[in-house]
């Protein structure tokens, strides 16, 4: 069977280390909560081969690369009806899962990894778990805690609904072709927040405005949204990287009540 040629425009770097691939699959911990696992960007199926060993869920590989789809259909005939050609970012995932819960896993193309997670947020009530490979510095940003220099917009927006665990670092030499950066595997586990105790649209606006001027105190970065009655609140004397998700919720509610 002829190997799939990695395509630069699709951000393909095929993982070649089988032990790492197995560890990524085994990082799925919430399997009692779902019966379907969506694999984004399976390539030549290095994760797929371990996913199909698990009878507790069905595996649905999704790829935008027709060559990869053809390869997978030939290599895994038992998955023929589950292998999907399409762009994960543009798909209506309820067409695949209905109202059922499902997990997401993948050696994600680094150029769209953040977009993949924002897509996950759109289906957060159906996705209890995500395990994926990311560029190391991006993974660190997603998992960063308040007070860290890497804590930012994506940290807050993702951690509002998911607990994020940095699992392990992956070197460059286990990919074909090798990427220019180190990689890391992280796990997202849905937390107990069904919805934020604030206007979620306003919450995103506040978080983005704050981190766009991350070196300034909140009363300066959010000046356009504040009035004299609330700007002296202690929370506005902090910088954005010092604030927890709940403090951003508090700020959003204060701003939302500003006349």
Structure description:
By secondary structure, the chain is α/β, with parallel strands linked by helices. The chain has two domains: 8-190, Rossmann fold (3-Layer(aba) Sandwich), CATH 3.40.50; 200-256, Orthogonal Bundle (Helicase, Ruva Protein, domain 3). 31% of the residues lie in helices and 18% in strands. The protein has ten helices and nine strands. A seven-stranded mixed sheet has the order 4-3-2-5-6-9-7. Strands 1-8 form a two-stranded antiparallel sheet. Strand 5, helix 5 and strand 6 (129-135) form a beta-alpha-beta unit. Helix 8 packs across helix 10. The longest helix has 13 residues, at 200-212. The protein is elongated, with a radius of gyration of 20 Å. The model has no long low-confidence stretch (mean pLDDT 94).
Indicate the overall shape.
Answer: elongated
- Assembly level: single chain
Runs in which pLDDT lies below 50 for 5 or more consecutive residues are none
CATH architecture of the largest domain: 3-Layer(aba) Sandwich
Q: Could you name the CATH class of the largest domain?
A: Alpha Beta
Q: Structurally, how many domains make up the residues?
A: 2
Task: Assign the CATH topology of the largest domain.
Answer: Rossmann fold
Can you say what the CATH homologous superfamily of the largest domain is?
Answer: Vaccinia Virus protein VP39
Gyration radius (Cα, Å) is 20 Å
Number of strands: 9
By secondary-structure content and strand pairing, the structural class works out as alpha/beta
């Amino acid at each position: 069977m002829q190997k799939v040629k990695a395509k630069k425009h699709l951000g393909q770097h095929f993982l070649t280390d089988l032990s790492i691939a197995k560890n990524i699959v085994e990082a799925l911990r919430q399997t009692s909560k779902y019966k379907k696992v969506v694999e984004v960007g399976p390539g030549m199926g290095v994760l797929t081969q371990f996913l199909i060993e698990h009878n507790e869920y069905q595996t649905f590989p999704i790829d935008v690369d027709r060559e990869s789809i053809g390869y997978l259909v030939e290599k895994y005939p038992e998955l023929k009806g589950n292998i999907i050609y399409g762009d994960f970012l543009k798909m209506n995932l309820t067409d695949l899962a209905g109202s059922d819960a499902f997990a997401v896993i993948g050696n994600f193309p680094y150029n769209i990894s953040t977009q993949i997670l924002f897509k996950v947020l759109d289906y957060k009530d159906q996705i209890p778990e995500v395990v994926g490979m990311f560029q190391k510095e991006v993974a660190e940003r997603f998992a960063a805690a308040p007070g860290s220099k890497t804590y930012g917009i994506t940290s807050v927006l993702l951690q509002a609904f998911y607990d994020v665990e940095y699992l392990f670092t992956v070197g460059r030499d286990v990919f074909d072709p090798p990427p220019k950066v180190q990689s890391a595997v992280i796990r997202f586990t849905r937390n107990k927040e069904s919805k934020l105790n604030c206007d979620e649209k306003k919450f995103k606006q506040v978080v983005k405005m704050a981190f766009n001027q991350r070196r300034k105190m909140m009363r300066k970065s959010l000046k356009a949204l504040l009035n004299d009655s609330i700007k002296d609140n202690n929370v506005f004397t902090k910088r954005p990287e010092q604030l927890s998700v709940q403090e951003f919720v508090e700020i959003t509610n204060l701003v939302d009540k500003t006349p």
